[in-house]
Sequence to fold (316 residues):
Amino acid sequence: MTRVAAIDCGTNSIRLLIADVPPSGAHTDLLRRMEVVRLGERVDATGRLAPQAIERTRKVLAEYADQARDLGATGIRMAATSATRDAANRQDFEDMVVGTLGQTPDVITGREEAELSFLGATASLAAAAAAHGNPPPSPPFLVVDIGGGSTEFVLGDAAGVRAARSVDVGCVRLTERHLHGDPPTAGEVRRAEDDIRAALAEVRAEVPVEAAASLVGLAGSVTTVAALALRLPAYDADAIHGSRIPVADVRAVTADLLAATRATRAAMAVMHPGRVDVIGAGALILRVLMDEFALPEVVVSEHDILDGIALRLARG
Fold:
């Protein structure tokens, strides 16, 4: 058994997983944390990470480093994704991480981000299905990780990844580009949809999505849509993990979110405060891709790139 700490620093949030990982089989969580730091604040417009965003990230990262040490993690890996890849002042961020964590972050490529997401998402699918009394979803899997700055699409099965593509549409980027109204106007939503469809054409050119037998959706936008579709009285990761949400329910939830004011979204019992401003865009990405690729349901995973980082760190 190897105890490791994995940190995923994305455009919208920074997350920590400390887990005991056996040589094979399921890992055991000791601690999971997620804090919204909005590292990618306006990076799409300016090309730079804002100093205040780097400082917000530093404060949380210092807490994560202390917790990893206190719980006796023997290895730690921090992966930084879309916002950092895009930033002209990436070195400022990396210097902050070295000063806080004592090691450089791995600013991973879109391809590796996709592979780690696939590994984390699919490792526990059969167990999650069994917990819901369902048969396991059928491979090949199209794993879709909707992040703040980018969305990863990975097609694969037990043998590994067949094809992958990362595109620069995410819930933060789309909100900053298009969804400015409260609620957004029909014209704003149409422009966001056009942006998503253009990105999906790039995906289709590289990933044979028609070969997928199951869509697996990851990250906070997808899990929040699932929580709303399931009408949960409060966010419940166990109820969400492995659930299957029909496309009709995704359409209905997305329409409700895009028609709601910020205050209405903030009052939703399952809504994380850090997702209030961007959940409409995240739901829209999910809805448009399901319609464009004619996918009847999404299997929702609470496990994602964070779990993939931990598994690869422990097992190589």
Residues 155 and 161 are 6 Å apart (CA to CA). The first strand starts at residue 2 and ends at 9. The chain is about 45% helix and 20% strand.
